[in-house]
Amino acid sequence: MNKKKEKPLKRAMDMDLPQRRFGFIAIEKRFVKADQLWEALIKQRAQETGKAERRPLGMILKDLGYLSVSQIDEILQTLEDEAQSKKNAPSSSKPSQPPDGSR
Fold first, then answer.
1. What is the reported pLDDT for 47?
2. Pairwise CA distance, residues 24 & 15, whole Å
């Protein structure tokens, strides 16, 4: 029997993933260029295939000299602000109905 080993989830099941990703925001803020992000993503993937645990993309970009700590903090703050505003936004997935069910 050939069973694939599943990687454990690194995020809590009830945690929403951010709408936008770290690398996209880094490019949007013009902190890095697309080819620099690509280089870091390839490096992250290569490290992932080894036995080492996945390193955060921001740290890889910093080690490559493409991001500063303050830029990483700014990107993380943007992600946090977006997650907070999403959490506080009213959900529009369910149509509103009067409490008695009549329309």
1. 84
2. 20
Q: Identify the residue whose tokens are 């529009």.
A: 92
Tokens standing for residue 20: 């936008």
Please give the Cα distance from 82 to 76 (Å, whole number): 10
In sign, the C-alpha dihedral spanning 3, 15, 92, 96 is: positive
pLDDT per residue over 24-79, tens digit each? 999 999 999 999 999 999 999 888 777 778 899 999 999 999 999 999 999 999 99
Residue type, position 55, single letter: R
Two structure tokens written together for 58: 């921001």
Contacts 24+ apart (CB under 8 A), 38-42: 39/64, 40/64, 40/66
| Residue recorded with tokens 């390193």 | 55
Global confidence as pTM: 0.66
CA distances from 6 to 2, 10, 16, 31 (A): 12, 12, 21, 35
